Amino acid sequence: MTEVTKISSKGQVVIPSDIREELGLDIGTTVAIERVNGYVLLRKIKIPNLKKEFDALTKWGQEFAKKKGIKSERDVERIIHGGRRVKSV
Q1: Domains of the chain, earliest start first
Q2: Half-sphere exposure of 48 (CA within 13 A, CB side)
Q3: Which helix (H) or strand (E) holds 42?
């Protein structure tokens, strides 16, 4: 079913509630908008929470270091230099 709406003085467009509900477009949902062959295409996109991903990666790194017995930067340097010595021989 086609819906009709108007563009506001600020360039805003109201997406009818039944379409928002069907597509899961809640307050704060991020959308991408682009022109395609004379049409305006609006699609829901997911942008990862970078802080959450960084925290998860940091936690993984800490657990990995603990399993390997790495406790300090000096341990890391020792491992790197030890690996270099083996390769150059």
Answers
A1: 1-46 (2.10.260.10), 50-88 (no CATH)
A2: 7
A3: strand 39-44
Report long-range pairs for 49-52 (Cβ below 8 Å, ≥24 apart): none
Which tokens in the block code for residue 4? 């009709």
Tell me the C-alpha to C-alpha distance, in Å, between residue 51 and each of 54, 64, 65, 77, 87.
5, 20, 21, 27, 37
Read off the pTM. Answer: 0.50
pLDDT tens-digit readout, 20-55: 999 999 999 999 999 999 999 999 998 888 899 999
48-57 residue pLDDT tens: 888 999 999 9
